[in-house]
Amino acid sequence: MGLLHRQRLGRGLRSGISRRLLLCAGLGWGWGLGCGPSEPTVLVYPAETDAARAVLEVDFHKPITISEMAILRPDERAIVTSDFERHQLYVGSRDGSLLVLNADDGELLWEYDMGGAIASAPLLVEGEPVLLVGSDNGVMLALDLDTREPRWTYETQGTVRGRPLLDDNVVYFANSRDQVFALDARSGAWRWQYEQPFQGEFTIHGQAGLTHVGDGDPSVPEGGVIFTGFGNGRVVAIGAGSGEALWQANVAPPEGGDFVDSDSTPLVDLASGEVVVSGQETGVHGLSMADGSQRWFRPVRGAGTVVDAGDGGLVFASSLEGIFTVERGGRLRWRRQQDPGVLSTPVVIGSTVLVGHSETGLLALDRVSGELLANLNVGSGISAEPSYDPLFGRVYAISNRGVLIALRVESEALQGPVLEPLPAVAGR
């Protein structure tokens, strides 16, 4: 692997992300120099322990941003999108380039200048050679992958950092000024927009994503629904066809405060008829899909987007209080406190939970117990949310110094057991 220093941690694999733990504190700093004896290697577990171990095997690593040594603490927040049919990867960068990479080795095929930093996840239009991507200069772009030219662009007054949604030839996306837009996917023509009052004072650095539910389910109104949150703590169900609010809920503290944002992407559970969202000052809320009334609540400061754990549990991270798994209803399964730093939205792969940490890199935890299994230390931390591609069998992570790391995931990582709920754990 050249640059990477390998450390065998013995047998006893239980979480299943391959059989070697690759850790190099110099990753992203000394490219081409290798991990020499003077560069520290982090040993997450002593070899003699019999605890479960996740091991991360790097397929390739490529710098996607020119190193900016004058910037003391840069960060990279773009998310990789993979294209199995064309065998390509799409990823933006803070210097404003949308990169198209070879999926085999990460080599650059071509790039497109967006004119502003890209911290969003591109969306590949199914059946069309079109990529939808937003940028920090407020643009939503439909890029033709064959001609390498825009089909259309739409400009807004706020940064666009979330993944756009596409349904029935309509593109939905939000920006940092608490505006939600619906555009014609073929022409970029405006259809409607919805907005909440813009919070011009203190807000958390973040932006809620959108969740779309189509009207194929009898519990969903005709035309479908868009769920999202806003900087004033409101969570809104928006008619996907009309752009009108169907209901509003408030997850901000009753007394208000400086940081009342609801920056999480809503998680919709059709079986229970619930929408699970987070408020920065309050915690995790289970709301009724029908009217937004609160069904349950788990107090956690700084909670982010909640992810389905696949076994009846819900996983989320708080940069203030750590990483959690709770049951639907809010009962705690486990909590793992972390060193200071910003934590990304978790990614669940079988029996493993992956979380980016802005200071220490990529964390792998056991989904059932919360036990720390491994830490890929890249030297500059990972602020971007990891992405998982089951077709290529990889996890992609981007270091704050702008290095894309492709991690191989073997088939055994996907085989998470079906488990009974664990007993309640005291405390928060």
The gist of it:
The protein has about 425 residues and is mainly β.
> Mean pLDDT score, rounded?
82
C-alpha Rg (nearest Å) = 21 Å
Side-by-side strand order of the widest sheet: 3-34-33-32
Low-confidence stretches: 1-52, 411-428
Which structural class is indicated by helix and strand composition? Answer: mainly beta
Q: Note the gap between the termini.
A: 42 Å
Q: How many beta-strand segments? A: 34
State the helix count. Answer: 0
- β-strand percent reads 35-45%
Oligomerization status of the protein chains: single chain
The main pleated sheet reads as: 4 strands, antiparallel
Classify the helix fraction into a percent range. Answer: under 10%
Overall shape? globular
Question: How would you describe this structure in keywords?
Answer:
single chain, 428 residues, mainly beta, 4-stranded antiparallel sheet
What does this structure look like?
The protein contains no helices and 34 strands. It has 428 residues and is mainly beta. The chain has a domain at 1-77 and 341-428. The strands form 9 sheets. It has a 4-stranded antiparallel β-sheet with strand order 3-34-33-32, with no helix packed on it. A hairpin with a 4-residue loop joins strand 4 and strand 5. The two termini are 42 Å apart.
List the helices and strands and how they pair.
Elements (H helix, E strand, L loop, with lengths): L5 E2 L13 E2 L34 E7 L17 E3 L4 E4 L5 E6 L5 E6 L9 E2 L5 E5 L4 E6 L4 E7 L9 E3 L2 E6 L3 E6 L5 E6 L15 E3 L11 E5 L4 E6 L5 E6 L16 E3 L4 E6 L3 E6 L5 E6 L7 E2 L4 E6 L3 E6 L4 E5 L10 E3 L2 E6 L3 E6 L5 E5 L10 E3 L4 E5 L4 E6 L20
Antiparallel strand pairs: 1-2, 3-34, 4-5, 5-6, 6-7, 8-9, 9-10, 10-11, 12-13, 13-14, 14-15, 16-17, 17-18, 18-19, 20-21, 21-22, 22-23, 24-25, 25-26, 26-27, 28-29, 29-30, 30-31, 32-33, 33-34
